[in-house]
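We give the chain.
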Amino acid sequence: MFDHFVWSVLAVPPLLVIAVRLLADRLAPGAAARAGAWSAAAAAFGSTVSLALFAAHAAAEVPLAGRALGWSTGLVARDTAAEPWVPWLSIGLLAAAVISVSYRWIRQHRLLRLLPSGGPEPLVIVPDAAAGAFAVPGRPGHVVVTTGMRDLLSDRQFEALLAHERAHLAERHHRLVRMTELAVAAHPALWWVGRHVDYLVERAADERAAAALGDRRTVATAIGAAALAGPAPHPSGLHAASVGGIVPRRVSLLLRPHPAVLPRGLAVVPVLVGLSSLVWTGEAALDLVQLFAAAAR
C-alpha cells in the first residue's frame, strides 16, 4: 500500500501546483479558477482518506484489536514491513488535517455571521475612512463598501468596482475560495493552488466587470486606485478589488484588448491530476479490505 501513500499524499499536491501554475494565465480565468478549486478539493479529499486508511491499518496492527476482532495482526503488519512508520505517521497527519479543517470551517461560519446584513439592499455603505469593498454571499448577496473607498473613486470607477464585486456574487466565487481554503487546511502543500485560485477569481471578476462596462481601462484604473489606497482590513475569503490577486498583473492584463487564452478543454489537466488521487485512494481502500479479509481467516 505504500505506493498509494506516495501518490495520494506526497506526489499529487506538488504536481497539482505545477499544473495550475502553468495554466493559470493561459486559460479563461473563470474556467481556471474552477479547475484549480475542484482539483484541490479532490486531491485533499483523496489524501485525507488515504491517511484514514493507513491509520486504520495502524490500529489493526495493535494486538488488542487483533484479539477482539479475531484476526492476525502479524499478517497486517507484514503488509507495510518495509515502511513500518507510514501507518503510525498517518495517524498524526490525519489528526492534524481534521483539526485544521475543523478550525477553518468554524472560522468561515463565524466570519459570515459577523458580516453586516444587507437586507433587501444590494449595496451597504459603511462609515469607515479606510478604503475597502467586498462581496457578501447570501440570498440575496450584497456588496459592502466603506465611505473611504467611495470617496476615493470617481463615479465611473465606483461603477466598475460594483461590477467587479457583483461578478463575485454572480459567479459564486466565495464557494470556490472556501472550498480551496478547506483543501489547503487538509494538505498545506496545496497552499500555492489556493493562492492561484484567489488570483483567478479576481481575474474572472475583472473580466466580467470589463465586459459589463465595455471599458477595460476604467476597471484597471479603479483596481489600481483601490490598491494604492492601501490594504484595508476585510474578511478573509471575501475578495475585494483593493487587495485580491496580484494587482499589477491584473491591471496589465486589463489594459490589453483581450488576453489570448488556450482552449477551455485544457482545464481538465489539473482536474485529472486531482481525480487520480481519488482513483488510487479507492484502490488502497480495496487493498485494505482484502488484507483485513485475509487476516481474519
In short: Residues 160 and 219 are 5 Å apart (CA to CA). The longest helix spans residues 29-60.
